[in-house]
Every structure is written in C-alpha cells, then in structure tokens.
Amino acid sequence: MNKGILRRKLEEVVRADKHRFHMPGHKGRMHWPVSGEKDVTELPGLDNLHRPSGTLAASQSRVAAIYQVARSFFLVNGSSVGIMAAMATALAPGEKVLIERTCHKAVISGLVHSGAMPVFVEQEFCQDRQAWLPPTVQAVKDGLAAQGIKAAVFTNPCYMGLVPDMDSIAGLCRKAAVPLIVDEAHGAHLKFGRKVGLPPSAIDAGADIVVQSPHKTLNAMTQAAWAHVLTPDLAEEFQRNLNTFHTTSPSYILLASLEQAALEVEAWGEVSLNRLAKLSRLLRNSLSRVGLRPWDSRGTDWTKVVFRQPLGAKRYLQGKGIYHEAVFHGNMLFMLTMSDAWDCSSLRFLIGQLPGLAKLPPVVRKPLHVPPLPEVEHAPRDVWKREGTKVAIAKAGGRIARQIVAPYPPGTMVVVPGQKISGELSDYLVWLHSRGVIPDWIEVL
Ligand SMILES: Cc1ncc(COP(=O)(O)O)c(C=O)c1O
Q: What pLDDT score does 103 carry?
C-alpha cells in the first residue's frame, strides 16, 4: 500500500530535523519502547480515566507524591484541557477572573466554557527584547482590588522563559481568598531546578491548581500533560469538569509516558538540570562571542535560550538540519531539555554553526506600537454563539470581536471575543498580518 500524504511528509520532516531545539522535551529520544501493540485504551486490567480507581489512580498518586501535591490528574489533550477544566471548576457564568493580556488561547477557551468575564492585568512591552514582560506584583495587586474577582490565572514561565514573581502573586491571591490557577505548561521541570537557579514552581509558591505539560519539558509523549490540584476541596469538581472535556478513549501510551516522565525527573532531574545549566551557559556564551546577543538569563527559565535572529536565520539553520522552537517578534527560541543534558551532540553541532549564523545581516528593528489593554464589553461566551460578519482587519476599529485571535505558536492572546477593537488594535492586527501570522479579516458582531 502507498504511504499517505501525512506519513510521507512526517517521515521527510523527521529525516531533515536532525538537531532538535524544540518540543517535545524528549527530542526524539524516548527511553522506553513505544510500539503499536501498546496502543490500547481502557482494557480490562487497565483503568478508567474519568473515574480512576485502580492502576491509573495508583499512577496518578505516584506523580502527586513526586510533586508533593494533594492530587494529580493525567491529561491526554495537553495543558489546554487542564486549563479549561480548572477555570470551569473555579468560575461560574458572569464571574470575574483576573488574567494576563498575553495569556494562552486555552485561557480564552476557558472563558468561553466557564462563561466568566475577564479582567486583564497590564503588562509592559519591552522594546529592547520586543517581548511582553510578565505582570508585576503591583499590577496584580491593583487587579485583585477590582470588585468581585473570583479567580486568577497566571503563566509561569511564559513561552520565552520569563517568569512573574510567583511567590508574591500567590501570597496576594491567598490574602484576597482568590483561587489561583497557574498555567505552568512550560514549567514541569521547575520543581527540580531550585539548586541550579531555576525560578520557583507555582506548586512551591502555593497556587491552588497548577497545570503542566511534561511533553514540553520532560520525557513525555506529545499531548501528555497533568494538572496538580493542591487544594483538596477543588479535586472532585475538577475531575467532574475534566470529564466533560476528555476523550473516553485515552491513549495508554500517553498515560504511561506521563508516569515514566515523572519517575525519570524524580530520579535524574536534579543531576540532569545541573548538567543542563552548564550547557545552557555554554550556548549563551557562544552566542555572545559571535555577537548574537542572547537574552539575559538571570531570574528566568534558562532552559529557553532566546536571541535576536539575523535575516535568513531559519533557512540557514534548517539547511544544516537544526530546527528551532519558534521565532517570535524577531526573537529566535531554542529549547533545551534534560534530554540534551545526556546527549549534547546536537548542542555542540549548533555551537559550531554559530559563527556562520552571525555573518548573516542583522534585522533592523523598529519600535512596535502595541495596543492598549483590552476593553471587554461582553462576556466571551455571550458573543461566541452570536452571528458574526467578516470584516477587513484594517476596517475593524470600533467593532466588537466575535472570535479569538491568538497566533500560533505559541497561541498568545491578541483578541478576545467580546472585546472592542480599538484603532490601535486594528493597526496591530494589520502589522501581524504583514508578518504572515494572521489572515487579513476578523469576525465581528
Ligand atoms: C503558555 C502556554 N500555555 C498553555 C499551552 C497549551 O499547552 P498544550 O499544548 O500542552 O495544550 C501552551 C502551548 O504552547 C503554552 O505555550
């Protein structure tokens, strides 16, 4: 039989992608064999993901013990499903939730499903890095002072490795008796990296629900994720909500990979991150030496290495079999994981190519005019079901958005349904379109 289009393409891309600086965290080097015969779902002797009481319950409890949390829940549709279930757990329709303007699109999906109303926390846009900075403690404090906030959702770390002051934010939420949900999709490794200067996990900061994607930073299969519920009172309601999102045919390959990833990080996490810290430093120093200015890693998740990409960087690197994670506002992101700590051949190869990369012409950057904080006039769920019309983004000023705009990767929110589109936002959308990341129309009411 002929190979299908997708299978052929997949084989072609995987052949070309020799040096991986992107997700998944295992970088193609899973430590246990995955085969078709293990691709089963809830067989007798296995367990029910919607009501675990046997092997799955024991496996989830093992992970909870490793992360020192009350309960852990396995997820087979990424952190996205955990974030949506967490928001549906903590929020009722019409209730207000404090969120970042740069939240992931799963948080917006959480607004649609829960019916909650967003209250956005302001963030600074750093023109030097051309990146949004995490919200400050003061901005969170101001946000929590708004009437009737029923929950808060923050990200730790962001896609580019920047972190908010999680300890202080968790303290503020506790004081205000506001449940704190943390999107720690990129932070499943943080708990094991305190000795080598990684920022704290929201688990140790004392959040209520922490959602992580071990497929991004540990050795789990793509889509495999988990949610830690630290406040036991929320656990049953979380399971109930999760069951409305999850498939009834979960892959046991994904589920088993979760427990394996947890066992590995428990056994080897600290020593691997110790090795990785040195390699991350080596890569940053090598970038600096050839003039490719990496971001300052102090206080950040240094497993993410970001630098200003020169013109044609992607073509140059891919021509040598080096695949990066993403390019975001002209910044190139390489993801290092514990897998690189034990096999650093790709990293050494990359370092060898940096002098050639540095010879490419630099990109001239202009200051970016970012739109003001979103003004939301209707709850996202209310507009979701209403009929919309498509208008050109250049002419969308003054209209109410009906759709989510969150260019992927990484799915950072730009427009939330129910938001009034300002003139500045319309200009920003035109700019995003000129970069090829969104279409030239938007659905409005
Ligand atoms: C900050 C952030 N949160 C959440 C997610 C969603 O995670 P997943 O892909 O595991 O559903 C992503 C995905 O890239 C992300 O970057």
A: 97
Q: How far is the CA of 159 from the centre of ligand 1 (A)?
A: 8
The Cα 307–Cα 68 span in angstroms is 35
For residue 78, how far is its CA from the centre of ligand 1 (angstroms)? 7
Residue range 376-431, pLDDT digits in tens: 999 999 999 899 999 999 999 999 999 999 988 788 999 999 999 999 999 999 99
Per DSSP, 408 falls in state: T
Question: Based on the domain organization, do 319 and 196 belong to the same domain?
Answer: no
Q: Which of 325, 358, 391 is the last residue of a domain?
A: 358
Instruction: Residue 386: give the domain boundaries.
Output: 375-444
Q: What's the CA-to-centroid distance between 228 and ligand 1, angstroms?
A: 16
- Pocket lining for ligand 1, CB < 6 angstroms: 78-80, 104, 106, 155, 159, 183, 185-186, 213, 225, 410-411
Pair 392, 440 in one domain: yes
The closest of 198, 161, 199, 167 to 180, measured between CA atoms, is 167
Last residue of a domain, one of 247, 265, 283: 265
Q: What is the SS3 assignment for 154?
A: strand
Instruction: Count up the domains in the chain and report the number.
Output: 3
